[in-house]
Structures are given as C-alpha cells and as structure tokens.
Design goal:
10 strands; HTH_AraC; 4-stranded antiparallel sheet; alpha+beta; 2 domains; Arc Repressor Mutant, subunit A; 9 helices; 26% strand
Length: 284
C-alpha cells in the first residue's frame, strides 16, 4: 500500500466523474455470483456482515471496511443471512490530469491504475457516512452548481480517507515504538534505565510515552521494568544460593535495602521470606 503522502499525491492528480451513487440494504439471502467488474467503484460497509471474494481471495465485509473495485477484478459478494449487509457505493470514471513544470500531463485510466484497490479498514466511519449521504442526496439533483458541489464532496471523501490512513499509520508506528522499548527492557533490565532514556528511544515526550505505554501495556514503564526485575530476582532466589546483594545487583539495583523494599511491595514477601518459601530442596 502507498504511504498516505504518496496516496494524497496520486489522488490529487485525478479528475473524477460520477457514474452512480447509492445506498443499499441487502436482503437476507443476498448473493452475487462471481462477475468481472466493469467500472471503478468504492463501497463503504456500514452495517451487517458478509464475505467479498476478490480474484479468489476472501475478505470479511463488515462495518468499518471499505472496498475499492477496479475493472477486470473477478468479484463474488454475499451477505450473512442473520446480519444483512448495508452499504454505500460510488461508481465513477477517472483520469489523471495535472500541471507539472508548466506542462499539462494527461493519463487515461488505462494508463494509470487507481491507487486504491481491494479492502481497507477505516476508523472515521461516521464522517465517511456523512459524506456518502451528501453525495447520495446531491446525485438526485441536477444543475451546474450541484455538479460542482458533488466534486467538492468527492474531494472531501478522498481527503478523509487519506487522513484516516495517516492516523492509523501514526498509531501503528507508535505501537511499534512502544514494543521496541518493551523488548529493550526485557534484554537490558539489569542496566540503569530511566524513563527519559526510554521515551527518547521511542521518539516521544516523557509524558506522552508514559501515557501511551500504560494504554498499550497496562503498566507504567517503570512499573513494567520493576516487575521484570522482580520476576528475574524470584528465579535467582529460588534457583541459586547467591547473596542478596549479588542478586540485587544482577537485576539492576545497587542498593540491596532498596531492592528488598521494592521486592516486598510487589510480592508481599521480603526476598529472604520468598526464598525460604519457594526454594527447591533436595527432597522436593
């Protein structure tokens, strides 16, 4: 898939002419046999469930899914009898027409594939529904000003899609950054890690990083690190005869008394109590 910036660049060069706009509620037993698509179209599923098969690949059709069908695709569509599909659709022609370095460039649909194909997940469904509703209403009217308004709504719809994909990508990038710091903590828990250094690694401010980490992981970054260290200390206390000072140092604490307080806060036992309770003995 193109990046949101690349997608915006491609869509910005396109001139779109509407062929048909509509809103459809499917019957319980709705099923379209495999057919070769003739026209470029976009479908927004707003309710129900079903399955769309594109060139042999099955996709779930449900609220929050957007499908872009291109001429030549072989498509089969069916609705769940218990939860019939409801959707908006837009059928259109397009061409590329734009100015570059004081030269007008024109490419037909045959020379330039539409940059959206297949299934996409969208999160800003209410705004897209609102824009489809407006297009559907304007489609029933005539007049030059109405035609201009329809063009504006199409641009708003495409812009909303690009913004939606950009938001999803940013959230995905943030999740990846959080997971990266998680992995780093697992591998380097014995080092003197700070909230500031972890936030810097994620490319986020300390407050933003802390908030997002807790949202995704369920612990604050420092609580997560503490639990990693205490879990490792539990293993060492049970499986070894190391002195408490050595165990504290091996899990990132230079002060054994501070380590003992943290350990008891997390487990409810002092390290010595925990070792006595859980340590393996020859007769076990």
């Amino acid at each position: 898939m193109l990046t949101p910036g690349e997608l915006a660049s491609r869509l910005n060069k396109m001139v779109i002419s509407i062929l048909l706009v509509g809103h459809q509620k499917c019957e319980d037993n709705w099923h379209q046999k495999p057919r070769t698509i003739k026209y470029q179209s976009i479908w927004l599923i707003i309710r129900g469930k079903g399955t769309f098969t594109i060139n042999g690949t099955h996709y779930p059709a449900e609220a929050g899914r957007l499908f872009s069908f291109a001429p030549g695709m072989v498509v089969e569509r069916s609705s769940d009898p218990e939860q019939p599909l409801e959707y908006y659709f837009l059928r259109f022609h397009y061409t590329e027409c734009y100015e570059e370095k004081e030269q007008w460039i024109y490419r037909s649909a045959a020379e330039s594939r539409f940059p959206l194909e297949g299934m996409y997940t969208v999160t800003n469904t209410p705004q897209l529904i609102y824009l489809f509703e407006q297009l559907d209403t304007l489609w029933k009217r005539r007049g030059h000003m109405t035609a201009m308004r329809r063009k504006i709504i199409i641009q708003e719809l495409l812009l909303t899609l690009v913004a939606d994909f950009r938001t999803q990508k940013a959230e995905g990038d943030t999740t990846a950054a959080i997971e990266q710091t998680q992995d780093y903590m697992v591998s380097h828990y014995q080092e003197p890690l700070t909230l500031e250094s972890l936030a810097q690694m994620a490319g986020l401010s300390v407050s933003h990083y802390s908030r997002l980490f807790k949202k995704y992981v369920g612990y604050s970054p420092i609580d997560y690190l503490t639990h990693l260290r205490v879990d490792r200390a539990k293993e060492l206390l049970v499986l070894s005869e190391y002195r408490l000072k050595s165990i504290a140092g091996s899990v990132g604490y230079t002060d054994e008394f501070y380590f003992s307080r943290i350990f008891k806060k997390v487990t409810g036992f002092s390290p010595r109590e925990y070792a006595k309770k859980h340590r393996f003995t020859p007769d076990h």
